Amino acid sequence: MKQRLSVRSPFAQWLLLAAVLLLVGGGTGAHLYADLRATDAGERVRLASYGKIVEANLRDQLRSTSNMLKSIRSDLPYLSAQKEGVALVNHRLESMSNVMPGVRTLLMLDATGTVSASNREELIGRNFREREYFRVAQQEGNPATLYVSPPFKTVLGVFAVNLSMAIIDERGAFSGVIGATLDPEYFSTLLDSIRYEPDVRASIIHSNGTVFVNSPPLPGVDGMNIAKPGTFFTRHQDSGQISSLFTGTVYATGDERMMHQRTVETSGLTLNRPFVFAVSRDQPTIFAVWRADAYAQAGGFCLLVLIASSVLYLYQKRQRAYDHLFAIHEVERKLSEEALRISEKRHRLVTDNAKDVIWTMAPDGTITYVSPSVEAMRGFTPTEAMQQTTEEILTPDSQAVSLGYFTQLHTDLAAGRPSQSFRCELEYRCKDGSTVWTEVMAQPILGADGAVIEILGVTRDISERKRAEERVRELAYYDQLTGLANRMLLKDRLTQSMLSGERSGSYGALMFLDLDNFKPLIPLGVQ
C-alpha cells in the first residue's frame, strides 16, 4: 500500500518547496513573457506608424514633383515661342525649384540628351544621353509615366535620384526629357524627424535595391545594392505585400535589428519604379529594459531559491537534531516511566505487605494515602482511615502532640529554617473502641521552591513495648510479693517532694512506721 507523504517528511517538504518555487518561477516567467510580447508588439506598432508617416511624405513629394513637371512640360510650347524663350524656360525652372522643397535641380534635355535649360547654368550644354533617366524615357517614350532613376552620382558630386518625363512633339515623336533631381538633404531631414530613439535607422531605397538616403548616415551604405538573396529587402519584395516586418541580421551593417519596410503607394501616378522605405531599431536596445528586468527578476528568483533552500535545509537539519534529542528523551522518558513503574510496584509491594502503616499527608493535614496494614492495626480500611479527621484518629493527648508538630513545621518554613523530621508516640483510636499505642516517624518532602509538598510517615504498633515498659516500671517501683511500693518508689517520691518544697518554700515531714508481725502477713499478701 502506498503511504501518503507526511508534511514532516523531508522529501515531502522539498517536494512542496519545489512546487511553490515552480509556481513562483512559472508566474515570473509568464509575466516576463507577457512583457516581452508587449514590448515586441508595441515596437512593431511604432515602426509601422512611422513608416506610414514617411510613406505619406514621399507620396506627396512624388505627386507634387510629377504635377510640377507636367505643368512645365505643358508650358514649354508657349514659352519656347516667345522672343526670349530659352531665358523664360530657365527662369521658370529656377522659380519652380525655389518653391519645391526636395527638388535640387530642374533640367530640360533635347532629343540628343543635351541640357537646353536648367535652374543651374553650369549644366546647360552638357550632354547626359548616357544617363538612365534619359535613356529609359527615350526608349519608352510614354509621356504619362514618371520615370524614377536609380540613385547615381551627379556631375555636381551629389548622390541623387532623378524623376523624369518624356517630351513628345506635336507629331508624337520624342523630342526630349524634362527632369527633377531630388535633394538628398531634404529627405535626410525627413528621416531624421522620425528617429524617436538614438538607435533608430531610416532608409529610402530604390526598387532595384540601391540605397538612396540613410539616417543617420552610414559610411559605405549609400549607393549599396541590397537586393541580395535572403536580405530583408529581397524578402519584402518577394512577399508581394505593401508592408513587412522582419527581425534578424541586416545585410548592410551585420547587426541584429527589427525592421519595418513599406513600398510607397502612388495611387494616381504612373511610376516605372517605386520607392521602398525602411525604418529599424537595434534589437538588443529594444529589449534592453526588458532584459534588465528579466535579469533582476531571474536574480531575485535565484536568490529566493537559494534562501528558501537554505532555510529548509537548516530547518530540516535542526528538525533532525530535535528529532534525535526527542528520540533520546523519549527513550529516557520510557526508561524513567518503567523505572518509576517498577519503583511504584516495589513501593506498593513494600507498603501493601508491610506490618507498619505507611501514609502520606498533604501540608493542610489531609491524608492522601494509607497502606492496607492500617486495617490490621486499627480495624479501619484504608479508605475509611483516609476520610477520618485528626479528632477521630487520635486521643486528646496525642492530638496536642500532633498539633505541636504541624505548628512547629509551619514556623520553621516561615522562618526559612529547614524542617525537621517528626518522631513521637501517639495513641490511636481503633474501630472497636480500644486504643493502640504507636510510634510515628514523619518526614516533610520539599519541592524545588523549598515548600512542603507532602509529608511521608510510618506508624508502628508499639503496644507490646508499652506493656513491657509498664511491667518494667512496676518491677522497679513495687515489691513483687506484696505489690507494695518499694524503696525506689519511696526515694523517687521523696526527691519529688523535696524539689517541690524548694520551689514553693514549704516544709514537709518524713514519718517511719514499724509494722509488727510483717512476715506472717506475707503469705496473706501473696494470696
List the defining traits of the structure above.
single chain, 527 residues, alpha+beta, Beta-Lactamase, 4 domains, six-stranded antiparallel sheet, five-stranded antiparallel sheet, 16 strands, rod-shaped
Give the secondary structure arrangement, pairings included.
Elements: H1 10-81, H2 85-99, E1 103-110, E2 115-118, H3 132-140, E3 147-148, E4 152-153, E5 159-168, E6 174-182, H4 184-192, E7 201-206, E8 211-215, H5 232-239, E9 243-249, E10 256-263, E11 275-282, H6 283-286, H7 288-353, E12 357-361, E13 367-370, H8 373-378, H9 382-386, H10 390-393, H11 396-414, E14 422-429, E15 435-446, E16 452-461, H12 463-477, H13 487-504, H14 518-526
Antiparallel strand pairs: 1-2, 1-6, 3-5, 4-5, 5-6, 7-8, 7-11, 9-10, 10-11, 12-13, 12-16, 14-15, 15-16
Helix pairs in contact: 1-2, 1-7
